Amino acid sequence: MANASEFGKVAVLLGGKSAEREVSLNSGKAVLEALVRSGVDAEAFDPQERSVTELVNYDRAFIVLHGRGGEDGQIQGALEWLNLPYTGTGVQGSAIGMDKVKTKQVWQGSELPTAPYRIVTKDSDLNAVVESIGLPFIIKPVHEGSSIGMSKVERLEDFALAIAKATEHDAVVMAEKWITGREFTIVILNGQALPVIRLEPPKDVAFYDYDAKYKRNDVQYGIPCGLTEAEEKQLQTLCLRAFQAVGASGWGRIDAMQDEQGNFWLLEVNTVPGMTSHSLVPKAAQAVGYSFDELCVAILEQTLTAVAH
């Protein structure tokens, strides 16, 4: 592990102006406290309240900005311009990862399994959508994270409301085939896939939504995940390939499903995952012996390696 003094002055980028601001503030606070406990000279830096030009006063950045502005290549581009090393994925991988459609297109082009989808609007021919991907399906804003604006559509009459909810957050909306089965998340850290986590939201929740992610305490997290050893290895390998395909690096998380026939389906990639008390990255890292503080330092250490993003 690096000596804390090697890092110099570190800006922990948190908050921002996306719909995930509140989560980012919580994640950033946890990361900042962990780095300070580890002896790192770290400070909180909220780009909504300060000009990014002030980052010239720092030696490196730990990005904990979720959603647009922080996870889509924008802040990464500013940091590249300032020649400031930063954690996680570079500009291009961040931009692809934040766009659910672009991510799917890359995965499809790489012959990786991802659920069928259609880009939709309130004027879409519903029968054509149903014919293409079937019912039920899930409506998602293409450029949001944390399950914001998502709805399950089981009947055609639910479609208009689901579209209205999603378009509050994004001009581009997709319908994705609903996969019935088991939900998993796979954390990637420094080129390794950590133990798979099975997500089991309570029965009254249609899917692992915003409240389940951040507010409820009755979600079950399975480590071990309940897959056979061979299946877990297969899923880890698949997710590493998916992570690399979009150009992601450093650390992140991939969400996946296993359908009732046992097939795996990739859902999406998170290039700046949550780091709150409810978050999945710390849970997976703990399973391989990392304390939260050690995890934060391990992620920050990525900035010491001169690798072009």
UniProtKB/TrEMBL annotation:
GO terms for cellular component: cytosol. The keyword ATP-binding applies. The gene is ddl. The lineage of its organism: Bacteria, Pseudomonadati, Pseudomonadota, Gammaproteobacteria, Moraxellales. SUPFAM superfamilies: Glutathione synthetase ATP-binding domain-like, PreATP-grasp domain. It is found in: Cytoplasm. InterPro entries: ATP-grasp, D-Ala_lig_Van_CS, D_ala_D_ala, Dala_Dala_lig_C, Dala_Dala_lig_N, PreATP-grasp_dom_sf. Cell wall formation. PROSITE patterns: ATP_GRASP, DALA_DALA_LIGASE_1, DALA_DALA_LIGASE_2. Its cofactor is Mg(2+); Mn(2+). Residues 104-301 form the ATP-grasp domain. Binds 2 magnesium or manganese ions per subunit. Its EC number is 6.3.2.4. It comes from Acinetobacter kyonggiensis. It comes from the Bacteria. Mg(2+) 1 binds at D255, E268. Transmembrane segments: none annotated. Its main location: cytoplasm. GO terms for molecular function: ATP binding; D-alanine-D-alanine ligase activity; metal ion binding. Keywords: ATP-binding, Cell shape, Cell wall biogenesis/degradation, Cytoplasm, Ligase, Magnesium, Manganese, Metal-binding, Nucleotide-binding, Peptidoglycan synthesis. Pathway: Cell wall biogenesis; peptidoglycan biosynthesis. It catalyses: 2 D-alanine + ATP = D-alanyl-D-alanine + ADP + phosphate + H(+). Belongs to the D-alanine--D-alanine ligase family. The active site is at E20, S146, S279. This is D-alanine--D-alanine ligase. Gene3D superfamilies: 3.40.50.20, ATP-grasp fold, B domain (3.30.470.20).
